[in-house]
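Recall from the previous chapter that SMILES is a line notation for molecules. Here it describes zinc ion.
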Amino acid sequence: MTPGPSAPLGRALRARGLRLTPQRERVLAVVRRLGHATPDDVLAALRAEGGTPAVDTSTVYRALALLEELGLVARTPLDRRADSFHPVEHGGHLHLVCDGCGAVAEAPARAAGDLAADVLRRTGFAADVTHLALRGRCAACRTTTPEPPERP
Ligand SMILES: [Zn+2]
Ligand SMILES: [Zn+2]
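With both inputs in hand, we obtain:
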């Protein structure tokens, strides 16, 4: 079995002179359970779990920002409204986000390998394509509405 979420989080926090609060631990556990979660998703999951102490939106935002700073979670814009957070160990795929219906599909990370290699060769920029979100139109939307709508 994998070790519980508290061990690496506790170490990372202590190295920064911070404490592992129950809220931070619960936020990380929820992100790990959901795989991808917006701050609203995290808040909804925590509220559904109940328990104490109660959490509010700003607690969730601060906890996610801290966990991101500590390198335990990362963010990807899967949704127009809010970034999604995911555990850093969850990164071996790309997301294909449909602008038509909002569906999110996954593709293997190697699909972006050629792109990253080409960008590196041309510009020297090493792109992080481990958990990229690509926007576009899914097969179903391309069939039902051939003309893409005006982008805002
Ligand atoms: Zn993902
Ligand atoms: Zn679609």
